[in-house]
Amino acid sequence: xxxxxxxxxxxxxxxxxxxxxxxxxxxxxxxxxxxxxxxxxxxxxxxxxxxxxxxxxxxxxxxxxxxxxxxxxxxxxxxxxxxxxxxxxxxxxxxxxxxxxxxxxxxxxxxxxxxxxxxxxxxxxxxxxxxxxxxxxxxxxxxxxxxxxxxxxxxxxxxxxxxxxxxxxxxxxxxxxxxxxxxxxxxxxxxxxxxxxxxxxxxxxxxxxxxxxxxxxxxxxxxxxxxxxxxxxxxxxxxxxxxxxxxx
Amino acid sequence: xxxxxxxxxxxxxxxxxxxxxxxxxxxxxxxxxxxxxxxxxxxxxxxxxxxxxxxxxxxxxxxxxxxxxxxxxxxxxxxxxxxxxxxxxxxxxxxxxxxxxxxxxxxxxxxxxxxxxxxxxxxxxxxxxxxxxxxxxxxxxxxxxxxxxxxxxxxxxxxxxxxxxxxxxxxxxxxxxxxxxxxxxxxxxxxxxxxxxxxxxxxxxxxxxxxxxxxxxxxxxxxxxxxxxxxxxxxxxxxxxxxxxxxxxxxxxxxxxxxxxxxxxxxxxxxxxxxxxxxxxxxxxxxxxxxxxxxxxxxxxxxxxxxxxxxxxxxxxxxxxxxxxxxxxxxxxxxxxxxxxxxxxxxxxxxxxxxxxxxxxxxxxxxxxxxxxxxxxxxxxxxxxxxxxxxxxxxxxxxxxx
Lengths: 248, 402
Description:
The complex is a heterodimer of chains A (248) and B (402).
Chain A: E1 2-11, E2 14-24, E3 29-33, H1 40-46, E4 57-65, E5 68-69, H2 77-83, E6 84-87, H3 98-108, H4 114-127, H5 131-134, H6 147-160, E7 165-169, H7 177-190, E8 195-199, H8 203-209, E9 212-217, E10 220-226, H9 227-232, H10 237-243
Parallel strand pairs in A: 3-8, 3-9, 6-7, 7-8
Antiparallel strand pairs in A: 1-2, 1-4, 4-5, 9-10
Helix pairs in contact in A: 3-4, 3-6, 4-6, 6-7
Chain B: H1 2-39, E1 51-56, H2 66-73, E2 91-94, H3 98-101, H4 104-107, H5 114-124, E3 128-133, E4 144-146, H6 154-159, E5 163-164, E6 172-173, H7 176-207, H8 210-224, H9 228-247, H10 255-279, H11 283-291, H12 296-307, H13 309-325, H14 328-333, H15 351-358, H16 367-400
Parallel strand pairs in B: 2-3
Antiparallel strand pairs in B: 1-3, 1-4, 5-6
């Protein structure tokens, strides 16, 4: 379970997130929608402390995962990121073989021996619905795959270290419709084992895949409720306007 | 209006093509000139031009190679047996010795009788070997045998272990001591500079605070701008005594000192190029690695360094190129002994240093002069091989992506 309590986030003097409080249940898919620059990606990157990499930023408030404040001094960032996997907007495989891409997380965290790694690589590739397509060319460069395959490879790579949460930052925005539908099907299957948080620009996608949806605007969480309610009968006029395409 | 514009564009295009062509032609001509001059060495006789070597006609020796001739006249070989003749002591005879044996009257007017006198001397000593100007060489075949001269061979040059271009009667143009000296100094320079340079590059691109980077980067780039003669001077005044005292050596001008100064000189290039390459590693790669729970260090050595590997090998090549071609600083601190290098702590001499030191005293067009051009060709071939191999390495890494 993920819980944000009064999270405020600043890039230098710019107040990017204002008083965000929300809860995300385990084994659900939560989608964040909103216009560009509204803070939804920033909020996603707070959940695995990816924003730590950006200079001159700071955070106020608390962010808890399974009851533990992840911004506490005692938290090891690399341990946290093992638990909270991430898939990025553009597929970003390493310039290594397909096998080594998936094995990377296992190797850097020294998880298991050779046969364990081989087994886990297969399992992860199956989990990401890629195994059948690549099983004969695991030694080939990951760059030889198509964009959609690369993105599923990145998902497999994230799955390999068995995180409990999977963050996806517009995972299908650079993909064609067929690859997109494959990724969406995948999310549906992955929900059984993982808690998924996805940022998307595509409202149909949010409606299709998520259980709950949060609508962000200008750094504020305008509305957060069940996806069905959000798209059929939102509470706020702003939300209504955005999802019906009156602005944004 | 439109026509005019098109013509102007055509002219600019033509001009650019022309300048490209002229540049490539100039480079080609320089290379052709270099090789033409250099390869002329193999048409030079292995005995000093205009001179010949004569022995008594009873001597069974047929020919001598340059090294044997040099050893005979240096009194290092004293018995004909050692060079394939009879068991007899060798008596080397230089042309000017004739003047101490005969008076001017005996030599005749305008030295007309000189060949005859020389013939007498040679006839008198069966064990003699005489080094004479061709002009005065006796034509008396009954008592004098002129040893045939051969052209300098590839084997003499590429396999020669002695570089004595001014030795008489037979100069030695052995490439090996110079080639090994160059490689010796350069390899150790790179061995010192590479880990250090990579370390600084990693520090600058990954670890340094903005403040430290702002100070350090310009300082390092400044180092690249210092003229090499200044480095040489610094090496001579500071490094040479330091090496001599701290290692307790007879002289401080050693291959090691040269390597040190070259390492310092190659550092700025290696650091700047490697740092740029690492900085160019896409942010997405770092984020992907960190998001998988890798630590900062793991990300550096498993993602950033491999990703930058082609840039890093470019840095190494530029460093090697600088080390191999560097002349002045090395000339000043390595001691310039053209001997086969046996240890790091002896004097050596590199190819570029040899060219710089000797070109001034080599008569244009002579064998010595040509040999220096040939050294230039060798240097050219080495640097070309280094850059080609680097190209191959970086291309392979890129296309495989493994």
